[in-house]
Amino acid sequence: xxxxxxxxxxxxxxxxxxxxxxxxxxxxxxxxxxxxxxxxxxxxxxxxxxxxxxxxxxxxxxxxxxxxxxxxxxxxxxxxxxxxxxxxxxxxxxxxxxxxxxxxxxxxxxxxxxxxxxxxxxxxxxxxxxxxxxxxxxxxxxxxxxxxxxxxxxxxxxxxxxxxxxxxxxxxxxxxxxxxxxxxxxxxxxxxxxxxxxxxxxxxxxxxxxxxxxxxxxxxxxxxxxxxxxxxxxxxxxxxxxxxxxxxxxxxxxxxxxxxxxxxxxxxxxxxxxxxxxxxxxxxxxxxxxxxxxxxxxxxxxxxxxxxxxxxxxxxxxxxxxxxxxxxxxxxxxxxxxxxxxxxxxxxxxxxxxxxxxxxxxxxxxxxxxxxxxxxxxxxxxxxxxxxxxxxxxxxx
Length: 397
Ligand SMILES: Cc1cc2nc3c(=O)[nH]c(=O)nc-3n(C[C@H](O)[C@H](O)[C@H](O)COP(=O)(O)OP(=O)(O)OC[C@H]3O[C@@H](n4cnc5c(N)ncnc54)[C@H](O)[C@@H]3O)c2cc1C
Description:
This protein is of the alpha+beta class and about 400 residues long. The chain has helices at about 5-25, 45-60, 80-90, 100-110, 115-125, 240-255, 255-275, 285-315, 320-345, 365-375, 380-390; strands at about 130-135, 150-155, 155-165, 175-180, 190-200, 205-210, 215-230, 235, 275, 280.
């Protein structure tokens, strides 16, 4: 078995590296607070600088390069796309294009009408359209099929009422990809439909609140008699559950998350080699050495897991189980890694990035907080274990 990428992929890797060397600020640390990949707001590159960085990525067609040409992509291979994601994640570079690129666009590609595909995929790949994902509700998180937001047909329109919560980025998004109940009289996952409509539609209120990293990213979204046209429905009525699952499979596969872990481990190794504590270097401590060796094994397992998913996607194989494995292992690895990092730094590891005493500018402090959320978003670790037990191992519910 040959795990090497081909010559073209390696040439492309160099191109992405040169781009990042040139375009990122010289003191760039890459506080990749998104362990699920990259691109979450880290405070290192914000506002206009951040948008102009993303614009340069879009001009090169990189964020959506594996999409078909007719939908704004370049028809590039999954391995090419992987190389890009790997390098971006490794550097903690901003600009994943958010959930529109990572999973909502790909789900539209599978389930959307031709009109949806032309309109939304083209807009996403040009960097003109952003999305929020309206799934979770106060009474429907892990039990997503319990969604109570209702969509009722009225003539040629749908009228939607309800509340969504944890809706990341809804206060900035152009559109929402929203799961609503269209039939209350069937088993709960069979009565859901998926809708796409603009966030500025009358009757929508988005109230932002901060996440665990103090970033104003979550929202409560209230839908009060929101009237949308019939073509806001994605695919067939009452098939929303399957469309949601398609998107979640893409979201969970997140092959880039392991590159972020690899870099965090390298930063930690360097820090231990350079830092003395009670007269000796941290790198000489046998307990820390053991911990790091174990992490190195896990980071390598993650890299191989990511390559396997790319291989499965290239060969059009279903990745559902592999996505759950990747999500579970990757998010828990990020948590172990950042916890051990913080531990090694002792009390200094709890200092936030604005403290002059914070090691590595607080990288591991913010990484730890963020890694807690990584095991919750896109389905908790317990939910992934349930999925693997049932779908993967054939155990009863
Ligand atoms: C960073 C982040 C971003 C997010 N972004 C979005 C977004 O953009 N859009 C969106 O719709 N949602 C989003 N969410 C919400 C996320 O999908 C939910 O938080 C998640 O599905 C869990 O739901 P809950 O918070 O209601 O917890 P609950 O479902 O109430 O679960 C509470 C606890 O019980 C456990 N539990 C529940 N059921 C079971 C079971 N059957 N077996 C074993 N254990 C169980 C869970 O694992 C968890 O530990 C985001 C969450 C986070 C953390």
